[in-house]
Amino acid sequence: GENVEQHPSTLSVQEGDSAVIKCTYSDSASNYFPWYKQELGKRPQLIIDIRSNVGEKKDQRIAVTLNKTAKHFSLHITETQPEDSAVYFCAASQYGGSQGNLIFGKGTKLSVKP
Amino acid sequence: EAQVTQNPRYLITVTGKKLTVTCSQNMNHEYMSWYRQDPGLGLRQIYYSMNVEVTDKGDVPEGYKVSRKEKRNFPLILESPSPNQTSLYFCASSHDSYEQYFGPGTRLTVT
């Protein structure tokens, strides 16, 4: 089955700096890669996702890149702000078939220092 | 308001006492899923359902049961809870298994 590895487990940056979180996946059939943000005591919420037919997607200060050949994808946050502090999870799944598994990485705790 | 609800939000129980955590969504979503969240292990899928009467095992289904008799409800059943099922549980729903909308979570402690 699918296995998703996420690094680093913790990341501390100064406000205004960029943050990069990386994930690798094992199943070449996976074609959907979402990123979820979970603030302390809250539920996870989708912040951005990418499908395997594109290599990059941006939404304001957040971008995700996908390298299908190497089977890895990354989350990039620019101009970080204290409210970006949270745990971020990557995930992988096979959309479109009968599979409904969504496999998450173990998470990255991002701390943005003012 | 579009939402996923879970009940109870907090539960302390004893080993072996059957319990049910309810999950309901009002968005007419076909896909529903249960996850458990443990420190250092992230979110792990327990069971998911692509539609009414269709359920499948996720990564950690042992010790859990689910049913999907109605589109809006997807209860999680622990027939004989054990301490290793102490965890934070999230229900989620999705229109097409893309963006998942999570419920508020249920914190379960089994003593």
**What percent of the residues of chain B sit in helical stretches (DSSP H or I)?**
under 10%
Please trace the helix and strand order of chain A, writing H or E for each element.
EEEEEEEEEEE
* Separation of the first and last Cα atoms of chain A: 41 Å
What is the succession of H and E elements of chain B? EEEEEEEEEEE
Q: What is the tally of helical segments of chain A? A: 0
Short account of what is shown:
The complex is a heterodimer of chains A (114) and B (111). Chain A has 114 residues and is mainly beta. Chain A has no helices and eleven strands.
Give a structural overview:
The complex is a heterodimer of chains A (114) and B (111). Chain A is mainly beta and 114 residues long. Chain A contains no helices and eleven strands. Chain A has strands spanning 4-7, 10-14, 19-25, 32-38, 45-51, 56-59, 62-67, 72-77, 86-93, 102-104, 108-113. In chain A, the strands form two sheets. In chain A, strands 2, 4, 5, 9, 10 and 11 form a six-stranded mixed beta sheet that branches. In chain A, strands 1-3-8-7-6 form a five-stranded antiparallel beta sheet, with no helix packed on it. Chain A is globular. Chain B has 111 residues and is mainly beta. In chain B, a hairpin with a 3-residue loop joins strand 4 (31-38) and strand 5 (42-51). In chain B, the strands form two sheets. In chain B, strands 2, 4, 5, 6, 9, 10 and 11 form a seven-stranded mixed beta sheet that branches. Chain B has a four-stranded antiparallel beta sheet with strand order 1-3-8-7, with no helix packed on it. Chain A binds chain B through residues 1, 6, 32, 34, 43-46, 49, 89, 91, 93, 95, 98, 100-107, and chain B through 31, 33, 35, 40-45, 48-50, 56, 58-59, 90, 96-100, 102-105.
